Structures are given as C-alpha cells and as structure tokens.
Predict the structure.
Amino acid sequence: MELFEAIKTRKSIRKFKDKPVEKEKIIKIIEAATLAPNSENKQPWKFVVVQDKDKKKEIAKISILGGIKRYTSIKDELNEKFKAMEDENRKKLLDRFVSGELFHFLLECPVQVVVLADNNIIYAVHSCSAAIQNLSLAAHALGLGSCWTMIGSINSKNEKKIRKLVGYPEDNWKIAGVLALGYPDQDPNPRKRKPVEEVIDWQ
Ligand SMILES: Cc1cc2nc3c(=O)[nH]c(=O)nc-3n(C[C@H](O)[C@H](O)[C@H](O)COP(=O)(O)O)c2cc1C
C-alpha cells in the first residue's frame, strides 16, 4: 500500500473478526514499529504481544473499569458535547460510555499489544508514540486493524496492575499504549480532522 494511501485510510478499529493473526504479520508490524525515529536511538521500548485469553481478559477488565470511571466523572461534559444529537440517540451513546461498553473491543480482539516505555531513557514515551504510529500503519497495510488505547492507564494504580500482569512491575516502565489488533469487522466513518489551514502556523 502506498504511504499516503495508508495514512489516509487508517482508522481506529474497534470490532474484530474472530480470526487469529499470523505470527509473521505480528513480527513484521513490530519490526516496522522499531524503525521509528527515537531519541538518541536508545530504542526505549518493549512490545508485549498478549494472546493468552485470561491475560487479555484481565487487561480488558482494567481498561473497561478505567472507562467507566473516566466517563462517569465527565458525564455532563459528554452530554454537552453530544447536545446536537437527538435525545434518545444521545442517551444511548452516553450509556455506552459510562457503562464501559465502548471498551469491550479490548476483550474481543484476538491480540493486544502492550507498548512499554522505559522512562529511565530520555523522551521514552515520545519515541514509543512514534513506534505505535508505525505499528498501526504497518498493521493497516497488511489488512489488519488496530486501536491505540490508554483508558486502562488513566489511573496510575491500574496502569501498574497492567504492567504487573505482563511482567513489567518496575516503575521505570510506563505504558505508552495498549493496542487492540486483529482483522477488522467494521468500516467506520473516518473521524473528521481540523482543516489543515487551521493548524498550520506559518512564520
Ligand atoms: C494516546 C491515545 C490514546 C487513545 N486512547 C483511546 C482509548 O482509550 N480508547 C479508544 O477507544 N480509543 C483511543 N484512542 C483512539 C482515538 O480515539 C482515535 O485515534 C481518534 O478518535 C481518531 O480516530 P481515528 O484513529 O479513527 O482516526 C487513543 C488514541 C491515542 C493517540
């Protein structure tokens, strides 16, 4: 797939086919991740590929709870954000946020990739973010879908719980993302972006 085509057509995927992802493909996309620019080429990352059902379930549970907490606490803000919607649709959408239903895809995806940044190294999270972008574009180019999530890490206790689950309890590690990965079972509408003229500041 041509680069600009891949950038333009990648979308976060939150519904996956019940189909395993080939190991070679997983290796290929993580290799692409490792080719990202990173500070001082220190490569401050680990990519934990979680396929074990119980482990995936535990990570998803923590994420869903994080979602419930976060969106319950900003329910009024969400209500305001969706005020243009019809009452019934708005209520349904809000329910999906505050019930955690919107994060169930983490339970159902065939693979989770936990990206860990070694915070003993300068700009580790920035470097990992560049790697995650490569990873998601490479996944897309291979016909896979992904969604970068952070909701499970919104609270530091929960973030640590996830790190412990995957064997990185030491506090120099920080979660840069938990990615859901798999074959897409949806083709969502692209999310709108601000017009480029609005975000460029020529000086
Ligand atoms: C740092 C970061 C954290 C994110 N966390 C979540 C998340 O917790 N749950 C989720 O469903 N999507 C999450 N996303 C995905 C964004 O919602 C998504 O990228 C954005 O709405 C734009 O949509 P697109 O990726 O389809 O273009 C996250 C993305 C980033 C970069």
About this structure: Residues 26 and 56 are 16 Å apart (CA to CA). The pocket of flavin mononucleotide is lined by residues 11-12, 14, 147-151, 191 (CB under 6 Å).
